[in-house]
What does this fold into?
Amino acid sequence: MKANYFKPIGSWILTNALQASYNADLNALIVGFLPYVFSRQLGYESRYVRGYEPYVADGMGFVLGKTGMRRPLYRHSGKKVPGIASFKNYQTLPISVWCTIFADAGRVIRPVILPENNLNTRWMTGAGVGIDVILWYTAMARFELSRNHWGNGVFNVSFTNAF
It folds into this structure.
């Protein structure tokens, strides 16, 4: 399950996202004996609490909430890109740069208990600031500085594309 909500508030945009998953079909299996691919929950792909990018948490399911405020710093409708004459839709390069303030929280449901990983059994919370650079409306580079519950600062660079 995944839900998103966006609301303009003056020059800022409030963003909220809630994502959850649970492997109910696998309840007959004993947690800890699942094939690893089914127990991978938080810390994989885009399912992570910002501030915990270097860590993973495994179990039967997860719940993840993200909230933030975004504000455009720079918007340009397009710069001419030389040498792309045959791709008409990509002859101009629209660019936008956004400032983001965020807070995330997530937890694994029915965690795999591992003595060396206590993140499986607790709520993870993180907050921070970031800069998003968006090109061609679909490609994004995200630069974020966040802090987790240990007080550790984490600088993360990520790239996404809708294609």
Residues 41 and 74 are 35 Å apart (CA to CA). Helices lie at 36-39. The beta strands are 2-9, 12-22, 40-42, 57-80, 92-111, 124-135, 139-148, 153-161.
